[in-house]
Amino acid sequence: MSIPETGLQIRSLVTAEGKLELSLAEVAVPEPGPDDVVIQVEATPINPSDLGLLVGGADMSTAKASGTKERPVITADVPPPSLRAMAARLGQSMPVGNEGAGLVVKAGSSPAAQALLGKRVTGLGGEMYSQYRMLNVAQVMELPAGATSRDGASCFVNPLTALSFVETMKMQGRGGIVHTAAASNLGQMLVKICKADGVPLVNIVRKKEQADILKGIGATHIVDSTSPTFMEDLITALMETGATLGFDAIGGGPLAGQLLIAMEAAASRKMKEYSRYGSGQETQVYIYGRLDMSPTLVPPGVGFAWNLSGYLLTPFLQKAGPEVRARMRQRVMDELTTTFASHYTAEISLAEALDLDTLHAYNAKATGTKYLINPAK
Amino acid sequence: MSIPETGLQIRSLVTAEGKLELSLAEVAVPEPGPDDVVIQVEATPINPSDLGLLVGGADMSTAKASGTKERPVITADVPPPSLRAMAARLGQSMPVGNEGAGLVVKAGSSPAAQALLGKRVTGLGGEMYSQYRMLNVAQVMELPAGATSRDGASCFVNPLTALSFVETMKMQGRGGIVHTAAASNLGQMLVKICKADGVPLVNIVRKKEQADILKGIGATHIVDSTSPTFMEDLITALMETGATLGFDAIGGGPLAGQLLIAMEAAASRKMKEYSRYGSGQETQVYIYGRLDMSPTLVPPGVGFAWNLSGYLLTPFLQKAGPEVRARMRQRVMDELTTTFASHYTAEISLAEALDLDTLHAYNAKATGTKYLINPAK
Predict the structure, then answer these.
(1) How far, in Å, CA of A100 to CA of A124, rounded?
(2) CA angle A268, A271, A274 (to 5 degrees)
(3) DSSP codes joined into one string, A221-272
(4) What are residue A14's DSSP bridge partners?
């Protein structure tokens, strides 16, 4: 195979004047150092965690297309409050894409790098919305025999996050988990993990069809947040499971607070005596996504031992240590096409990712909708 | 001194029908066991933490007075959402009053109890809105010579809470504290503690007069949340102090979220490079009061390592252990009329506490307004 001297890469630029510009840049295919491999990227997902960097706080209702079909350009206005938050990236043309998989087409001189030449690997390291991406061997994992790049594109963000929820539960000595946006790719992985590991899991969905998907893969506690009996259903499920730990992907609006209220109510109903200070049960909800960018609401009624926190995978992995990390990664490889199978709405090229209609579609972050970029397409 | 057989006590009853009833009950003065003392209560403050139990979630705009001047009765409607939260106390006539001080008029047979006979003591144990209150010797502290019951009425809730903030900062290895409602009795204690201990403290007030009070007792970082430059002033103060720990008495509304945003902004401004995942600085705000009962708002912009939690003194004291507790208590006694001096708006009798206008006044929980009940009056 002949390797070109340059490849295309998606870039996101926010200017000091408050403009977002998305474009394709032509960049040199790098020469690997001894421990590096160059991957021809074949599959890289658009996760909610990528969109923050990609759209840079812009108001996408102002987005306009220009350029050519092969070299599309998108521009949009970045409102002043977002612009302030972007101060540190102004004027820098930034590559995007947390994770992805592809074929190793060049390898450094070390045995570890050479062993991967011609193999399909999956990697985490940013800049994956590129035709060619160089990574250190420590940042990649070889895919199992027969696995495609599409199978291995989403090996890190969702699988490790789902596994980290169960690890967090064990570290904190809690009895179960409640999860929102439960019909997402990540949510479905979590259902399978918890079923296999015997971990009580309460799944919160927003539609009957989502409940049906989860039932189909063996979920037992499913609560619909749009039901008029939502709070009662949730309290009942929390009493049955003993879950005092929640992971919320929605972020904004009332849901995270409702989880805390329902956990407190479930604990209070088990009390014999009234206490003005609530149940005393320590509860924890982590916000790991912000599908809703409005403020999170925490009303009274949550007791006094509640905790609401931000959650990111990377600090968790650092805290968990090398043994836990290795165990988690091995499980992802072992169960790549079962537990950790991802479902994609469409497979698009780099140029198609900068098509205005397509961009609006994936930026809507609807549960059950996920786009996969194939830069080799 | 002759001790009557009975004494008056404030009672709060919430009925299943959704009525709050406040009244004075006549209860027997108890006979002390070996390790008990009976206190003739002379001073017991109305803290925000007492009001939750006293008003029982009632809508006090519906409050009506009945009964006599000596035996007043207040009734009010409890709206359905509050009533649900009160399920465990329905139909129980509950005594009120966390802390207070008075004269030991009866003592049990043990040497520890006998040693307190005729002494003024301060106690924590509930039911202090009573003419006579029996407590175990372990629940009381003898006041220093010359101290009045008024001096010693508020030895526990505010002083120990203020001290616990500094202890929490040390336990979490943080560099400073930010405090809201900073001109309160508790806030003024905190200013004095932090000044003596060299702890950087950012004080958030809502009025110029409150800022002046704090300046007068030596506060250096004072920020007015009603100023148009509030967020910038706060970020500057947080950058100067390095405070990543907040204690918020307001609870509802935007303030707690603003603290988290300002902490994240202060940490971000010290960063060399943009990260879509924020500064990585772990931040913590504790809500220890709910002067505002509307939902707490946490918008985006807080980074990903933020924590917002409920805070109560009692679990802190349990976690801190006996040595820390003893040290904290000793400091309160040593600095009773200096660091821990409380200021009261008015001293009222038990019956006056159930006067409708007076009740509205103290239930407003305005910063700088605090009522003291003298049941011996």
Answers:
(1) 7
(2) 80
(3) EEEETTSTTHHHHHHHHHHHH---EEEES-EEESHHHHHHHHHHHHHHHT-S
(4) A20
CB of B99 closer than 8 Å to CB of B118: no
* Cα distance between residue A229 and residue A220, in whole Å: 18
pLDDT in tens, A42-85: 999 999 889 989 998 899 999 999 999 999 999 999 998 888 77
Instruction: Estimate to the nearest angstrom the gap between the alpha carbon of B255 and the chain centroid.
Output: 19
Q: How far apart are CA B222 and CA B235, in angstroms?
A: 12
Split at pLDDT 50, 70, 90, the class of B273 is confident
Nearest-by-CA chain A residue for B97: A276
CB A98 within 8 A of CB A124: yes
The answer to whether the beta carbons of residues B39 and B104 sit under 8 Å apart is: yes
Buried b / exposed e along A352-371 (16+ C-beta atoms within 10 A): bbbbeebbeebbebebbbbb
Residue type present at position B251: G
Please write the tens of the pLDDT for every residue from A105-132.
999 999 999 999 999 999 998 999 999 9
Nearest to A310 among B94, B296, B303 (CB): B303
DSSP conformation letters of B149-165: HHHHTTSSHHHHHHHHH
Structural contact between residues A71 and A24, judged by C-beta atoms closer than 8 angstroms:
yes
Closest chain B residue by Cα to residue A299: B295
Least confident range from B40-54, B58-72, B267-281, B302-316: namely B267-281
* Tokens at A272, concatenated: 């014999």
User: Strand pairing of A120-124 and A140-142?
Assistant: antiparallel
Helix (H) or strand (E) holding A205, with range, is: strand A201-205
The angle subtended at Cα B125 by Cα B122 and Cα B129, nearest 5°, is 80
A contact test, residue of B293, B308, B316 with most A CBs within 10 A: B308
Give the DSSP H/E element, type plus range, for residue B257.
helix B255-269
